[in-house]
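yo

u said u wanted the structure for the complex thing, so here. seqs first:
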Amino acid sequence: MGLIQRTSTWCAMVLWCTAAMYGQQSDAPVEVTRNYFIRNAFVVSKPGVAPSLQSIIIRDGIIDRIGPGLSAPPDCKVVAADSMYVYAGFIDMMSHTGIKKEEEKKDAPKPASRGVANFEQSGITPQITALSKLAAKETSVGDLRKAGFTISQVFPRGKMIAGTGAIISLVDADHEDKMVIRQGTALHSSFTTASGAAPSTVIGVIARYRDLYKNVASALNNEETFALNPAGLKRPVFSKELQALVPAYRKEMPVYFVAPKSKDVFRAIDLQKELGYKMVLSEIKHILPALNEVKAGGYSVLLSLDLPDEIKEEGSKKGEEGDASKKEDKGQKTEKKEEETKKPEVKKEKTPEEKDLEARKKKSYDEYLSQAAVLEKNAIPFGFSLIEVKPADVLKNIRRLVKAGLSESAALAALTTVPADWLGLSKTNGTLEPGKSANLVVADKAIFEEKSAIKRMLVDGNLYVMEDKPKGEGKVDEKGMKIEGEWSYVVDVPGQPQTGKLSFTRNGRGYTGTSVSDNDPGTSDALEDITVEAESVKFNMTVDMGQPTTVSFDLTFMTDSYSGSVVVTGMGSFPIKGNKIKGPKNQSFSN
Amino acid sequence: MTTKYTTLLLLFVFAYAKGQTGDVLIKGGTVLTITNGVKENTDVLITKGKISAIGKNLKAPGATKVIEATGMYIMPGIIDAHSHIALDAINEASHPVTPEVNVGDAINPYDVSIYQALAGGVTISHAMHGSANAIGGQCQTIKHRYGEVNPDKLKMEGAPRTIKFALGENPMRTHGEGQGIVPRTRMGVEQVFRTAFSDARVYKQQWADHKAGLTKMAPEFSLRMETLADILDGKILIHCHSYRADEILMLLNVLKDYGVKKICFQHVNEGFKVAPELAAFGASASVFSDWWAYKFEVYYSTAYNAAILTRNGVVTSINSDSDELIRHLYHEAAKTQRYGDLSDEEALKLITLNPAKQLGIEDRVGSIEKGKDGDLAIFDKHPLSVYAIPQFTIVDGNVLFDRKNDAADKRIDIDPEEKLEAAFYERLIEKDNCMQDVTETLFFGHQYREALHKH
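structre next:
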């Protein structure tokens, strides 16, 4: 223990600051008229064309005219966009935007014993639709819109088979139905294991897929036999799960298979070859080792925009000093005093071995970032998925991909024309042309330039204006749950519930924390990367199980209790819950 | 795209540029053929991954790689009949019967243990499901083609299907204790086998009836039952985790009742007590050289086990079940000369031809014969000498370990976000692969650190 314990408080703080800056924009829709005139902007009508100075007339949600030298019609509100850049609205192909975060059902029936889990306990819920989980008021809708997106294909959260997706417009709506463009668009699948039930490993999940698709075939045959002449036959047992898998089985609905690591990609390809559905490799983080197989199989790819953290260049003392000064700003005077009494840490010269390891890490980092460029070069169709990336990081990260060799036109295509094509929206979206939906992005600079910022959005003809309104310091805290204090925990490991205590201490705008197991009250493990967003609290812990093993917590806090899940690398996911033991009183934390 | 990235990509895709098979000529060594005695000053030629000639003064086309092996010893690549390296999942511990799962679906070609095994002359291992369940998952015989990134390319093509069974404490503790289900006792374990086999018979009959048109509606498909039916049909070799003699006899009786003939007992620490019975059944045994007393059922053991089994005519191998032991299986085999006086050939067979037989691949590997796979291990001294150090390890004619060209960092897959540690972590407990992924050995309990081996 302790060898790799490193609380990444700084990391958590950086996240906080980004979130804070991001929250400083308001984008209340302006509803005077639905006719707009976008004046004298550099219009990039589609990927690969040079920006040209034009104006755009929009009437009731449709692009009416685009051209140079247009003058403002009297019925249109003028949107000042002089020398700004206008693009077709971005289209997200995979995220949980607008999907409610659900509390775990408290009285959900437990599997009678391991292995005899029902479909739901096993994480097989293809019958769940994104629409049934959609909430118009979810803040994630506005967050993604601020990042330039006008349309999103959203999926319910879940495990092995989470459910089917829906394509939604990212408008502010008073009812979910008004957002829906189409539903039942794709099936979300992954290698996620069930918690406390079968399948508990990736081999269990793969075996279960084989079982499922065989049984869909078998159920269809039986249905047919029964329909032809039911006399003397036992009625086939209805299964809503198998029924919901039929479109994927018949290749009428694509399967978006989440396969982040290259090993997952190989496994997903093997399984697809066996079971035959139409597959989009999704949320891909590392694909190069499987490039030949991906190409040969003709698969489409959704690259995750959750890129590896940037590697800081050697000797950038500046950054460290910057961090230190930030810390002072937080007014932690007491802690600072303690720090001053400590001996200043002497920077050790790196050993050749450490240098080698760092070089290999850098090489790997470069490889990861070059992947989009490599896919482009190999003519493998690709877009992006946004499951794990923060909306505020989307453009920033795409710029990193462009820096690593991806062409700007391919990057723009992956945000506009490619998703429009894949989602069957090309006639209405993806490019700026008269007759298409008024979904567009206005930025103050070309979007792939470092400091470009989105200033206006039109979503289905509704105007959203992003103005910077500085917010007071420290307000961020109110958005996050106050979790300081001590909390009990019970991890539901079948047959052997694990109990103990979690403690959180405020540290500037973030938290530090420890975990102590009741089995070993003398030892505490540090909690790493604690992030708090509204009631969602996430952090990691490294425990020694013969080798350092990461334990990831994803918790939803209520006033005096919390619940969620714990993922132990290589072992699976387990439900966890707990109550407050001591700590300050919580105000209501709903926004 | 910059040339920098193009180069990177080329490097990556051709990391295993050696291709599928290779050519190599090994000159002038002492060849331990296993099946045809010891040949001094002899050359071995591998062409397109297969041994094409064994003899004096062999010639090879100009471009062929040549290893000067004068004074060295050449033996068949070592085969480990019980290992858990190169796997991302080992125990699907959610049910006492899980033959539907297959560790071949979770091969991790990036596991650096594969390279460490090569550094010990091991070219093939039997990547096994764990011992949490009475009937565990299917296993996968892998070739140590380190550098290959496609998991499927590690699978030894054509190797027979194998499956893990387990007796005794592990399935009892994982399932019975704390859950109130079968098996909670050793008799419960027996009943798990009998129930599973009986169910599979019924299932087989149901599908046979359906296919013959006797029933119109198809029965539910079950990969679990399909696999059990394949075991009954002799299509899958059983490898059973076992310790106690009474349980070994129990399983032999169960197999007799259901007409299953092929089984290899793993660990089988009390095998010496029932060696004649094992031989009579035709069962084989894969043992540790001298590892025991890590839990109650593993106290009655002896280092003479391998020798006693061998002398009784049981096909016996010595395995590692460990990513550390796998690096020196030649030492483990040599211990049978101290404890049991086995001959050189008998001792070497324990880690070559015999495990090959247990995995059903003896026609391909396990001895140095013309036509067999070009899998070889080359040592500076006789491999049964305690001073022996592996020099080269060859798989399919590709030199994958060369002691003189042994880079410090042999990892293939580097996570760009990983935290760098220049040193290896100290192991607080010895890794317990056989029970990996079993939820009871969970993280929070630091008592786990004190846990004993649970093989």
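Residues 1-26, 315-340, 470-478, 586-591 of chain A have pLDDT under 50 and may be disordered. Chain A has 14 helices and 26 strands.
cya
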